[in-house]
Structure formats: structure tokens, C-alpha cells
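Action item from last week, closing it out:
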Amino acid sequence: MVQEYQLRVTPRQAVEEALLKEYLSREKGIPATDITHIRILKRSIDARQRTIFVNLKVRVYVKEEPQDDAFTSTYYPEVADKPSVIVVGAGPGGLFAALRLIERGLRPIVIERGKNVHDRKKDLAKITATQEVDEESNYCFGEGGAGAYSDGKLYTRSKKRGSVEKILNVFCQHGASTAILADAHPHIGTDKLPRVIENMRNTIIRCGGEVHFQTKMTALETDGQRVIGVRAVRLTDQEEVSFRGPVILATGHSARDVYRYLFSSHIQIEAKSLAIGVRLEHPAMLIDQIQYHNKNGKGAYLPTAEYSFVTQVDGRGVYSFCMCPGGFVIPAATGREQLVVNGMSPASRGTRWSNSGMVVEIHPEDVVAQGMNIPDDPLLMMRYQEQLERACWIQGNRRQTAPAQRMNDFVNNRRSNDLPSSSYAPGLVESNLHSWLPPFIAKRLQKGFVDFGRRSKGFLTNEALMIAVETRTSSPIRILRSPETLMHVTVEGLFPCGEGAGYAGGIVSAGVDGERCADCCASYLLGDNTQH
């Protein structure tokens, strides 16, 4: 017999199967000795009151072993002799597009400017050791994209766009823990995700696809208003190469050379709103104490605590973004004379710190009001990002040492005489953030922090550290495409995809968009107008 139940249990009961069996025996009348297996289908923590509960949806197997798999596998056929599609970028949008193309009987050729997921590690370590950023291999460029070494969170609200469950199941098929299928806020972890990404690449190659690293797109090949392939340069020897087929363009939110190329080639793009601010880092124990209403923190059975804040200040949203419990703040620049920060968490979420982006909603008209008034400039928001990142780099002594200020000092307009310990490995320099952050950002952050501190006692504190600057929250550009075909509005055979095209915001939503683009590309290439 198999039964499903909704349960509300203590954190210890949720973790220890023997106690969970006792609970089911007591509450549901099932003899504990008859329960052969418990599969957790959904799990979320209710920390609204002082007594913490865990809400579970479970599948209970009574006197029988599970016959169903913990996840749903996808069949990937051999496609070596099938028509080719060029996928530019090996982030989540590109990888899921490539896998979906294989499902549809097409051969993906993936080109990626950066290195494979393991070789990237050496270049990331060099940022701290040498204070220099490799412009082609960094926290944003390389196999797995920005998500591979920046966090690995798998939470999205974009469920109307496609199957989130499918994306999570594909991750499990390639080695991710099946816990991501149950958790309300699933997370693989930066230490685990690279292996999963490598397995996805191996599937692509095993099925007859190709993956080319250190191969940078330089131009689209066109026949009139139709894209028929790409030109690229192999960075290892500077040899020019070309690939033929329709193109799924999944280059991520930091490929600014691609945006400039599209603009100069008169391929329609537009400036879009984004959010800019700082990374806010607290001691993880403090966030645990606040969120779990307990001076002892999370205890033995609860995960490192998360938080989420949002408010309106002077007509613009101020909110937390990409919260990383038990994580690190990392240097995320992609070029020279830039300083950008982001956050990541290992699977254990076990560091001494917790951080989150704290950002202000920015519209193009806000930037125009700052004097960057170039009529109809689709690169406006990108140029503004670049301006702030350079200003931050200058404040950081023209290195990757990030300008920082204690949170309460910032709110009270005073300098910080010293800085607390931080997870940010390249180092910090004390800075009065009000002196160089644009006032329309700094003042909204200031008011937002007061509001958040009012709602959550202890959150507004000088134990917390503001580390500048967080600018890469999303793409500053939208590459225009048809809502029905997902093809570019004027260029046939070009499918702008994922976060870099302005249609996704994170690993899962980029994966969903990658699958949708692959479906539309398959319909275009195979002459099949059936909706998938």
C-alpha cells in the first residue's frame, strides 16, 4: 500500500526517519514496523512563530518497496547525423537548450568563450592571488555560466513559462540530490553543481553533439535577414572557425561585447530596467537567531536561515536579492577596471557568514535623469553599469579589494572606523558609500534598511557589512523576439535565449527558457508548427 500525507512536524522529526515513522504510527495509525520507506515529496519550514515547524508532503510505502523512481528521467537519442543548431553559451540557458534539441532529434553544437567547469577554478583563484580578472574565464564566463560558481539556487517564480519540475528532474538525472525536488527553495551548492554540469556536457557529446570551449563568437553569419551560422575565434590559437545552422543565442547577462555587436549590426535590442546596490553580509549565527527566534541559532536540525525583504522607497522597489545563507561574497567582474560583487553558497551552507544582494530598482528614465541622456540608446543601462563598476574599482584602490561600510554607520551617515571580518577573499577597503554611490540609490538603500530593521529586530546592525557594488542582477538589455516563435523580431533563424537576452532571471528560469527556445528552433528547422 502507498499513501500520501501532509504533515506538520518538528525539525528533528523531519530529519530522523525513525521519529517520523513513530509520528506516522501515532497520528495515522500505521504500525511503524510496517513502514518500509518514506519519500519526502515537498518540504518547507514555517518559522513565523517561536515554535518552528516543518511542513512535509510524504509518500509512505507500507509493506512494500518503492517501485517508482525518485526522479523522472529523460531519454536522449543519438543525433550525430541530424541537422545542426548552434548554441552560443554554455550557461543554464544554453545547456538546457542543447539537451532539449537532442530530445527533439537535432544536433547541438555548443560554443563557449570560457573554459570547462574545472579549468575555470584556477582562474577564479587567481583573482584573489593576483587581483587580476581573466576576461574570458571568470565567475561569469565559462561552462555553467554565472550560476556554476556563483551559487546554484534553483528557486524561480516563472512557472507559467514552462516546466520547472522538468528542469529539476534533469539536474537529478545528471547527479544532483533528489532533495531539490522536495525543498521549497532548492539549492545544489557551488561545490556540487560543477559535477552536474560536466555530466550534462557528457550527455550532449555522447549523443553526438559538440561542445567547444574557449571558442568566442565574433559575428553571426547571415543570408539577407536570415541567420545561417556563426563565425568565431578559437582563443587557444586565434584560429577563425565557423559553424552552420540556426542560432540559439544564450550568452548571459555579462557578454557586453555581444550587445555591442548586435547594436552595431542593427539587430534590434532595447534598454531594460534592472537593480543595483550592494552585497549585505551578516554573521550567519545572527541571521539564524533572528529568523528562528532563538538565541542559540538554528540548532542541530534546521538549515542555515534565509530571509527575504522588499519595500517601496520613493516610488522604487528596494529588496533583497539572491540570498546566500552560510555563503561567501565573491568578485564577479568580467574585465579590467571593473569591480562587481556577487554571492554564493556551498551545499552545506556552513560558512560563518550569510549574504544577500540589497538592491534598488532602476529604470532607464532614472539613468537619463543622471545626465546620461543619449537619445534612444539601447546600451544606456549597460553603460551605466560600467560607469558604476569603474567608480567602485577606483574606490577599491584600482584592485579587486572592495569598498565596504558597516550597515548602521551607512544608515547614520558616518564612516566606519574599522570593518568586521568578511568572507570576501580579495580584501576590503573602508569607504563612505554615500560619497560615491549615486544618491538616488544610496538614499533608497538607507531608508530601506531602516524599514527592514523595524520589521526584523537585530537586522539593522553594525555587525553587518555592506560590500559594493552589486550591478549584475540581470541583463541591462532585452534582445527583441516574437512572443510566439521566440525568434528575433526581424532576423530569421536567431533565437535570443535566457538571462542574457532579458527573458530569465536565474538558473531554473534560464533553463526553462532554453527548452522553449529549443522547441521553437526545432519547429522552425523541421517545419513543424505544432506547439510543444
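Closing note: The radius of gyration is 24 Å.
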